[in-house]
Design a protein that fits this description.
381 residues, alpha/beta, 9-stranded mixed beta sheet, 12 helices, 15 strands, 34% helix, disordered C terminus
Length: 381
Amino acid sequence: MNHQPSVPQRRLRVGIVGCGMISRNHLEAFAALDAAEVVGVCDVDLGRAQATASAWDIPNAVDSVAALLALGLDIVSVCTPHPTHEAVVLEAARAGVNVLCEKPIAVDLASAERMVAACDAAGVKLGVLFQRRFWPAAQRVRSLIDDGTLGTPVIGHVSVLLHREPSYYSADAWRGTWQNDGGGVLMTQAIHYIDLLQWYMGGVSEVYGAINTFKHGEHIEVEDSATAVLKFTSGAIATLSASTAANPSVGVQIRLTGSTGATAELSEFPEGTDGRVTLMASGQTVESTPVHPPEAEANVDLTSINGQLVPHHTSQIRDFVEAQSAGTEPAITGRDANNALRILLAVYESARTGTPVRFAPFPSDGPTAPGDVAASAPSSV
């Protein structure tokens, strides 16, 4: 029998758009994968792109998406400011290139749905970064639902009480504005945990919320604090509180009680560290670990937060690369990302009108029906 030598699989060619702080996580993640290589970076500031390319030994640095796509890419990673995501994704889709986009997918639903539709029409994959789903502890909580330990979640709570200095908002001109950031703590920080909550609890049917700016009003026009009550199509209910006005930060807790009566809590403290299951109560047993270890430093700078998330960026980016090679869908698609976006936009709309926002769950087969939920963040609050 003749055995033909195996042909090594071609490494996927990757381009990164945007060379700001979060691009480092993408660069490190792709560098850890044998199946892909970054062949070019792009930034409107060509000097910044060239500096990134030099630091990471990347052969090409350009200042336009068109020039990046001309390198013959398989994947584009989008690391640009939130409202610019759509233009990059649509251009990549037209070129037949798969797209991995930083969260939030967009700052309004119409934009997000155009991105999903364009990628569908072009037959390319669209993934969105929600790397905290790849925490082992987050996966464990999901398994407690799937294996019946919790049963169907019936009561949930998310607390996101973080610390940001004014310098965080002044670091980039786009931060803290409705037009260029799309929102405040909900859009930029709490969206990760809203994503986890809806992943655990399912489709949302109604949102009633309020927002305010208690600490950072001299530096931002968006909210630094928000609260909401969520009702789910299953009949479950949950509450959400989020702020960047806490000092010190007390991190994040997500607590679920299921139809079996069991309760599980997922915690992230200090911010950026791996999530931990800090409470598991089932039957006659309550197991808990300290949410706030006394030796931990509460307020952590953004560079440290992002750096500690690199392993989970790597896990999600590996999943996206493997999905392309296998011809399957990535773990978190553009449609999945729309779910968290429409929940937080409903909080904004409810805060603007003072009334609950009602909508159908999970618009996976087409755009949201008109009037279901606000299509964009409010211009003023």
